[in-house]
Fold this protein.
Amino acid sequence: MTTPTASPGDRVVRVASGQGFWGDWLEAPRRQVEGGQVDYLMLDYLAEVTMSILQKQKERDPNMGYARDFVGAVESVLPGVAERGVRVIANAGGVNPPACAAAVREVARKHGVSDRVRIGVVTGDDLLPRLDELMAGGHPLAHMETGEPLSTVRDRVLSANAYIGSVPIVQALANGANIVVTGRSTDTALTMAPLRHEFGWGATDWNRLAAGIIAGHIIECGAQCSGGNCLYEWQTIPDLANVGYPIVEGHADGSFVIYKHPKTGGRISVPSVSEQLVYEMGDPHSYITPDVVADFTSIRLEQVGENRVRVFGITGRPPTDKLKVSIAYRAGFKAVGTLVYAWPDAYAKAQVADRVLRERMKNLGLELDTVLTEFVGVSATHGPLAGPPGDPPEVQLRVGVRGTNKASVERFTREIAPLVLNGPPSVTGFAGGRPKVEEIVAYWPALIDKTVVRTNVEVLA
Amino acid sequence: MKVRLLDIAHARSGDKGDTANVGVIALKPEWYPALAKHLTLDRVRQHFRGVITGDVERYELPNLNALNFLLHGALDGGGTLSLKTDAQGKVYSTALLRLVLDVPDDEASAVRLPGKKQWPAYTRSHHE
């Protein structure tokens, strides 16, 4: 099937991706807003366990609990927002969207553009204060994989947030917000919402809503669809130092083109977009979101120009009556220690060191649930599939332990360094010092009835 | 003919809890039918035996010339629990591309699949 791209006069809406996760390239938001015309800048900050980290920060300081990088990102794009009408949508609010909005407002005030910034704040995804009420009211919040009820870990829960969809973001835009801050919105809603708002897609416009979700999926990981982490002909992908982040050029009928600004590096091609489409995919027939269930087997891709891929033909169907809930709970402690063994017999030395370490831990009676040994350079990433190691110049011994007994995990961290002087020879690479004990905050996915979650939208004047 | 997956497909992998997914995409559209025919559920189960603790699921996306595999029990608990270097399953993609398919010579030559008579004898004994 071949179709021309856009007929002249066909209105387009451009949504640019400026951040694929909290920690992504700090330069990207500004480059997206200054590299060419865009209408919206979409910034995705939240991974599965980010909410719990933010919850811990909020416990220490009630004004924290959001992605602080976002404040700098807004500052870097303020001219575009204040002078050229670019609107920003981000799930940077974490567990404290009001505090995030206040910080953004302060930045706008500092730059004298308060009158041109209207911040929309979306709340209602945070279920932590309501958890006991919900559980008592017949919502077990059972683990989606194991089926265990949440009551088994209730006393260790740190955060609980429902994944919310496009509706409150669309409302914030309709109410005139030009910076929208949400908590645990789905990543894809951040892109679909502005398309839905601009084109007036209805709540049962399943195919177009699904198209907006798939546009979101393609750009939610930033440059991962425009040449970053791309295996296809990776040696030929140009100028990654100057990589262009992706932009959705959306059309009213739901079709869209993925492109990037001119004079940027990377590559947007059918293979690069295909790789991102299959990333973190489950059953491709049913990509479930709060707004719509999208069918990835309906997607058509077509290269329509240099670094331009048209996406069309997408179908969707009504969503379920549940929302996914992201719950984080304390699940013990872990630590990882490493040492590097050099040629000759690097692998054999690392194996002996592992045996010595394990024998000492056993003699100490350490209480650990798991001890995992990997040999980096031999089998850490592909295990036995990697085949025999030959005669490598060095091998890193990497030992990780996990358990609920903190003292035992702590004691393990003291057993690595001694091996340098009292274990097998030719060992180095311990300059990082003693391994750090980390508290494990684990992820508990659950479902809840949609009707229970009430979102709220406020636009700050 | 022995056809190494790396020579006919590219791939990307990611995680969902303790499950890794690997999306495998034919390098050329005309190679997808052979990929879909020979890269079976059993073949992938066998490839990852002893590497993952759970079962495998398989889905077809002919529109993208792609297959999607879900590898359960692949990530030592997944997320923050995992002690693995590859806690998020980012490189299961290339682990799958190590797989070598047996494709009848006439089928392979009909679409010019790159292959060889034999790949070096594959051994796992070293690590077992």
In short: Chain A has a mean pLDDT of 95.
